[in-house]
Amino acid sequence: MTKKRYPRLLGLLPLFGTLLLGGCNMTLLDPVGQVGIEERNLIITATLLMLLVVVPVIIMTLVFAWKYRASNTSATYTPKWSHSTKIEVVIWTVPILIIIALGVITYKSTHALDPYRPLESDVKPITIEVVAMDWKWMFIYPEQGIATVNKIVFPANTPVNFRITSDTVMNSFFIPGLGGQIYAMAGMTTKLHLIANRNAEMEGISANYSGAGFTGMKFKAIATSQADFDAWVSEVKASPKQLDEAAYAALSVSSQNNPVELFSSYTPNLFQKIVDKYEGMTPGKPVKHEKKEVAGNDVADTSEHSAAGAEE
């Protein structure tokens, strides 16, 4: 009885796995933004093309295993068979055509969905500067003169130009409901262009492990009407908090599961100052004070060589 019970229990495992998958978030397959929709369509198209090979192979494996089973004595037995031109043509032509189709689609979509490529729209885009920190996200609105932590609001049907950097280790900025992720790296500025097709409240995450507080590094991303966005900006400007140098220094301290914070103002050029902090990390590009030191060392070396030549 025990031996017969095990196969039945094993048969229930796929059902159990299906129940677990029922709790997964399907945001990637139900995006709010146009970029996300195009990426979803690309995923579905590529999957269907690959299934043109996978499904027939699975079916033929089952059919051949059943047809040529040991108990089927009526099956044709050809132990010396080794070649079939028809089979060779099929198993080579179909995959090659699929690879060519995938290559063309991937090439076109790679350029069309380039995260650095501005989105075409008659509406003026809004710029949001993003700074990855331990373990929180800071957002700066240069045109509105405000800053937030772990929350962004922007108008729907309006392109959003994200400028992204990090004031700590490498990270990844990702709003699954809008489009793909882009890395945030210290001393560098990366770009991402997204747009929401309708009003929605989404969750943004860190898509790159960055330490102990990684799992709590989430933020709210809200697409709303232009009127509601303007009202929200006015609300933030009324906040008593100001993101001056002292406030930013306190914010830079590592912390986990941070609440939303709103700042009515921030230190001028804060985003660029954060990028410039790590300028020396860029190979072959010394910072300004290093250039002066290098020039001074060159002059000193020249003087020493001249003095040595005179003594000789």
Helices and strands, with pairings:
Layout: H1 2-21, H2 34-67, H3 85-112, E1 126-133, E2 136-141, E3 146-149, E4 151-155, E5 160-166, E6 171-174, E7 182-184, E8 190-194, E9 200-206, E10 218-224, H4 226-237, H5 245-251, E11 261-263, H6 270-277, H7 288-311
Parallel strand pairs: 1-5, 4-10
Antiparallel strand pairs: 1-2, 2-3, 3-11, 5-8, 6-7, 6-9, 9-10
Helix pairs in contact: 2-3
At a glance:
Helices cover 43% and strands 19% of the residues. By secondary structure, the protein is an alpha+beta fold. It folds into 2 domains: 26-69 and 85-113, Helix Hairpins (Orthogonal Bundle), CATH 1.10.287; 126-281, Cupredoxins -  blue copper proteins (Immunoglobulin-like, Sandwich), CATH 2.60.40.
Rg of Cα set = 29 Å
Shape: elongated
Order of helices and strands: HHHEEEEEEEEEEHHEHH
The biggest sheet, with number of strands, parallel, antiparallel or mixed sense and barrel status, is: 6 strands, mixed
Number of domains: 2
Low-pLDDT runs: 289-312
> Which fold name is given in CATH as the topology of the largest domain?
Immunoglobulin-like
CATH second-level architecture of the largest domain: Sandwich
Measured as a percent range, the helix fraction is 40-55%
Number of distinct beta strands: 11
CATH class of the largest domain: Mainly Beta
Which structural class should the secondary elements be placed in? alpha+beta
How far apart lie the N and C ends? 102 Å
GO molecular function: copper ion binding; cytochrome bo3 ubiquinol oxidase activity; cytochrome-c oxidase activity; oxidoreductase activity, acting on diphenols and related substances as donors, oxygen as acceptor
GO cellular component, one term: plasma membrane
Region (Disordered): 282-312
InterPro entries: CcO_II (IPR045187), CcO_II-like_C (IPR002429), COX_ARM (IPR010514), Cupredoxin (IPR008972), CuRO_UO_II (IPR034227), Cyt_c_oxidase_su2_TM_dom (IPR011759), Cyt_c_oxidase_su2_TM_sf (IPR036257), Cyt_o_ubiquinol_oxidase_su2 (IPR006333)
